[in-house]
Design brief:
The complex is a heterodimer of chains A (365) and B (244).
Chain A: E1 3-8, E2 13-19, E3 23-34, E4 37-49, E5 56-65, E6 69-79, E7 84-88, H1 95-102, E8 110-115, E9 118-119, H2 124-130, E10 131-134, H3 146-156, H4 161-174, H5 190-202, E11 208-212, H6 220-237, E12 240-245, H7 248-254, E13 257-262, E14 265-270, H8 272-278, E15 282-287, H9 293-298, E16 302-308, E17 311-316, H10 319-330, E18 335-339, H11 343-351
Chain B: H1 2-16, H2 18-40, E1 44-45, E2 48-49, H3 50-70, H4 72-79, H5 82-87, H6 93-118, H7 130-154, H8 158-174, H9 187-195, H10 197-210, H11 217-241
Antiparallel strand pairs in B: 1-2
Helix pairs in contact in B: 1-6, 2-3, 2-6, 3-6, 3-7, 3-8, 3-10, 4-7, 6-7, 6-11, 7-8, 7-10, 7-11, 10-11
Classes of the chains: A alpha+beta (365), B mainly alpha (244).
Chain lengths: 365, 244
């Protein structure tokens, strides 16, 4: 990632520029030929700090199929180094499509997406070297062992032979699979495969790791392990992570910032805390058949009322002091629940839809 | 190097599917020794025993069926999404395609070799110029595997693949002069066999093994060589177009 450029004005003066991703050093000087080797006699040295837009910069990205279907509709955001960024939304919202575009598997219809300064549409192979991706569906070769899968990856990504073995061992260690490295992946459990693939995605030290539903279909204990694992990785390797998920608890736990996507558009983007705070209050949820909404609307501390089937969701300022009055006016209630806002409430607020996790489970690992 | 690693993966997977290796050897043996012996007892082609006559054709047949069916592996790779892992890596589409082609080529050549090794048991007289024979086998198998992989890149399911490739493999085999000589054929049949690249492969093999040529070694080399190159190129394009 370091580039050396030499610019010469005329036969006697030149600038040599040394660039890496953060800084640019320019040495200006005169050229003197002594014997056969030209020498640069420095006259001045300048250093610039290249302003960092972000490791991932997306502007107005769109993917349109058949003129009508807007899978991704003009989204923009930027991610910095060491950030865990979440894309939250229901299936069909455009999360996986966005990820596939960033991974250079799909070409965008409009807009730009840059990873480490390289545009995904125009310089895909430079981008591929700098990203790692763990797909939603298992993508290892079942008929190879864990070790062999990692080895193949190392070869394909041009990991230098001197460090290849060390990197593979390190990956196996990180994934806690050193003992099973010579077993066929066919015999791995879902959690093991997932750990292997995450470790594999990092083998070539990418700048950004894409995780598509990293804990989908896994049991709670494995999910916890994987969350720890991801958090550790970000701290140790200083990578940025983009993860797509429909699990609220996962987004809440891991993400520094979250973008809520629905119908291909970003409807909200902020830290989990800010998103919840933006709702403006705690949530009271009531299961009931005929709520007296007119009585409730009049109450001054009610911020928002959502009714969905038999569920009434109220966003209330300082809910615990007012709950008695609310229960008195709203009517006969089957069950009531009072709690601080969660991401599910945020989701409901921005997309107008209740989030049902069970419906969203696709393939099992 | 990426290409080597990809080939290595194909080879390992091939070895681990033991059943395939054995079953793939049985069919040509049946053709050769049952069909060949049966017909050979009655017919000769010119002054060559029929069984010997079809020997190069049977080798070509094995190549056709195993190479084209190798394309099914790409359908499985798609299913397993292993292909995504390969496509997202910084290797060119051409390298990815060649990795699979070489894997299929290894498979085909191993099978051809098994047949060649077994044949002395049954006393088929033929000469063997190793370098040239294997050169032609290689070109043939590269072209055929590419066809299989291209078909595979368009198919979603193994069943669909089986159906379409059936339409391709049988004509390639029957219209190649593997089973009958190409002289004195009616015009339509003659035209089809001349358009079939496998015909030239069979001719070359027959010429090298039995000394009987129809088109001459050089012509065969030219046709088969261009066939292989064109198909590999098309394969690279097909992979690029592949929808995930």
């Amino acid at each position: 990632m370091n580039d050396l450029h030499v610019y010469s004005f005329n036969n006697s003066r030149a600038i040599i520029r040394f660039e890496n991703r953060d800084r640019c050093l320019s040495v200006r000087g005169r050229i003197r030929l002594s014997g056969l080797a030209p020498k640069l006699i420095p006259v001045s040295v300048e250093e610039e700090v290249v302003p960092q837009q972000g490791v991932v910069v997306i502007e107005n990205l769109s993917k349109i199929y058949n003129r009508d279907v807007r899978a991704v509709d003009g989204i923009s955001f930027a991610i910095s180094e060491g950030e865990i960024f979440g894309l939250l939304g229901p299936n069909g919202a455009g999360k996986t499509t966005t990820l596939h575009i960033l991974a250079t598997l799909l070409k965008p219809t409009a807009g730009t997406a840059k990873i480490d300064g390289y545009e995904v549409g125009r310089q895909p192979s430079k981008v591929r070297k700098r990203i790692g991706i763990v797909f939603q569906e298992p993508s290892s070769d079942e008929l190879l062992t864990g070790y062999e899968n990692l080895k193949l990856h190392a070869f394909m990504y041009g990991v230098p032979s001197e460090i290849r073995k060390d990197r593979i061992d390190e990956a196996l260690n990180l994934a806690d699979l050193t003992g099973r490295k010579d077993d066929l992946v066919k015999h791995y459990s879902g959690g093991m495969r997932r750990r292997l693939e995450i470790a594999r995605g990092l083998l070539h030290r990418p700048r950004v790791l894409f995780l598509d539903e990293p804990t989908l279909g896994l049991d709670p204990q494995t999910r916890e392990h994987i969350w720890d694992y991801i958090e550790r990785l970000v701290v140790e390797l200083k990578i940025s992570v983009i993860l797509t998920t429909h699990y609220m608890d996962e987004a809440d736990r891991l993400c520094d910032r979250i973008a809520i996507i629905d119908h291909g558009k970003i409807v909200a983007l902020d830290t989990p805390e800010n998103l919840k705070r933006a709702l403006g209050g705690d949530v009271i949820r009531l299961q009931m058949s005929s709520p007296n909404l007119s009585a409730v609307d009049v109450l001054p501390y009610i911020r928002k009322v959502d009714v969905h089937d038999r569920l009434v969701s109220l966003t209330v300022l300082d809910a615990s002091s007012h709950i008695q009055e609310i229960l008195a006016v709203i009517g006969k209630v089957d069950t009531v629940e009072l709690r601080p806002p969660s991401l599910s409430d945020v989701f409901l607020h921005y997309t107008g839809r209740e989030y049902r996790e069970q419906e969203m489970v696709k393939k099992e690992w | 190097m990426g290409l080597y690693a990809l080939w290595e993966r194909e080879f390992k997977v091939y070895l681990r599917e033991h059943s395939r290796i054995i079953s793939s050897a049985i069919s040509p043996i049946l053709w050769l020794f049952v069909f060949g012996t049966g017909m050979g007892s009655e017919f000769n082609v010119g002054n060559i025993n029929y069984q010997a006559y079809i020997f190069p054709g049977i080798i070509a047949m094995t190549m056709i069926f195993s190479s084209v069916f190798y394309g099914a592996s790409i359908v499985w790779d798609k299913r397993l999404d292993f292909l995504k892992e390969v496509l997202v890596a910084p290797i060119s589409r051409a390298t990815a395609f060649m990795g699979k082609v070489l894997g299929g080529a290894t498979d085909g050549i191993i099978q051809a070799t098994i047949i060649i090794i077994l044949s002395p048991i049954f006393g088929i007289p033929f000469g063997l110029d190793f370098f040239l024979v294997y050169l032609f086998l290689f070109m043939l198998v590269v072209g055929l595997t590419s066809i299989g992989l291209i078909i595979g890149s368009f198919m979603e399911s193994p069943e669909g693949f089986g159906l379409i490739s059936g339409f391709v493999t049988f004509p390639l085999f029957f219209f190649s002069g593997a089973l009958f000589p190409l002289s004195n054929l009616p015009a339509w049949l003659s035209a089809v066999t001349l358009a079939n690249p496998v015909t030239y492969g069979v001719d070359a093999l027959r010429g090298l093994m039995l000394g009987v040529y129809r088109f001459g070694l050089f012509a065969d080399l030219l046709v088969l060589g261009s066939f292989a190159l064109v198909l590999v190129y098309c394969g690279t394009l097909a992979i690029r177009r592949m929808r995930l």
